[in-house]
Amino acid sequence: MVTNSTSLKAINELLGLKFYIPSYQRGYRWTKIQVEDLLNDLDEFKKNIGAKSSDFYCLQPLVVKETIPDTSAFFEALPKEESDMALQVTRDAISNNTRWEVIDGQQRLTTIFIILSYLSNCQLLYQRNQLLLILMGSLDGK
Predict the structure, then answer these.
(1) Phi/psi of residue 99, nearest 5 degrees
(2) Do 104 and 62 form a contact (C-beta atoms < 8 A)?
(3) What is the pTM of this model?
C-alpha cells in the first residue's frame, strides 16, 4: 500500500534532489509576466517580513512522486554470479539515485531553478571579478 505524505520544505532543502518532468507534462509556458509576478511577490514578502522569525514564503504546492530507476532488465541479462555482485553495488547506488517525478508545480519548480541558476552565475561572476581586481592590484604593486 502506498502512503502519501505532505511536508513543508524550504527551497534549499530541494537543491540536492533530482527531479524529472515526464513527457506527459506540458512544456514550459511561463512568460515574463508570470516570472515578474513571482519576483515581485518575493520582493514584497521580503519588505514586509514581520518580526517573527517563523515567517516564511509559501511558493504553492509542488507535488512529486519518489521513483527509483528500474534495473530488473539489466540484472536479467547478466550471468548469475555477476548479477549477485552487481545487485549489491546497485542497491548502494540506488539509495543515492532516487529521482522525484514532478506531478504538479513544474512551472514554478523550473522557474525557481532558472532564477537560482542565474543568481549562482551572478555570484560566480562577482567572485571572479573580485579575484581579478585583487590580482590586478597585486600586479600593479598595490
Answers:
(1) -120, 155
(2) yes
(3) 0.67
Grid coordinates representing 112 are: 525557481
Q: Whole-angstrom Cα distance, residue 67 to residue 83?
A: 22
Radius of gyration (Cα) for the chain, nearest Å? 22
Cell matching residue 70: 528500474
Cα angle 92, 94, 95 (rounded to 5 degrees) comes to 70
Written as nine digits, the cell of 66 is 519518489
**pLDDT tens digits, residue range 23-44?**
888 899 999 999 999 999 888 8
**Number of residues in the chain:** 142
Q: Is 8 in contact with 61 (CB distance < 8 Å)?
A: no
Strands lying side by side in the sheet with 18-20: 18-20, 99-104, 63-67
DSSP state of 103: E
Give the angle 105-65-91 at the CA atoms, nearest 5°.
140
**Under 8 Å between Cβ of 26 and 116:** no
